[in-house]
Amino acid sequence: MDIKKARPRTRINLTSNTDGRQSSRPLRCSINAHPWRLDLDWRWHQAALDFGCMLSINPDAHSIPELDHMHWGVEMARKGGIPADRVLNAMTLPEITRYLRQKRRSLARAA
Ligand SMILES: [Zn+2]
């Protein structure tokens, strides 16, 4: 049995936090680009965008050749209507550096 086929899909609530309010901190969601996963399901991409999520696309590679799975994640993001400016992988080095610095600062303020 292929363990990736057997693993249940990730279950998340994109409509609210446990207390029913939207998070004040933007969330990050991952699109798993492995062909047996492909979650977050593209049908939920608009909800993730509406919720304020930044998305990353990861190949879930367990070997060098599996890095090629990235294109499946990009295809799913396109199918789900995710614009490039909401994908962490699509940022330039200065953009991701600025983004992570801002996140670090806002986390430090919240602590
Ligand atoms: Zn994995």
UniProtKB/TrEMBL annotation:
Matches recorded under InterPro entries: PHP_phosphatase, Pol/histidinol_Pase-like
Sequence segments annotated as region (Disordered): 1-24
A cellular component term, taken from the record's GO annotations: cytosol
Biased segments, Basic residues type: 1-10
Signal peptide: none
Compositional bias segments (type: Polar residues): 12-24
Domain of life: Bacteria
Biological process annotations from GO: bacterial-type flagellum-dependent swarming motility
Single Gene Ontology MF annotation: zinc ion binding
Name the UniProt record assigns to this protein: Putative DNA polymerase beta family protein
Source species of the chain: Bradyrhizobium diazoefficiens SEMIA 5080
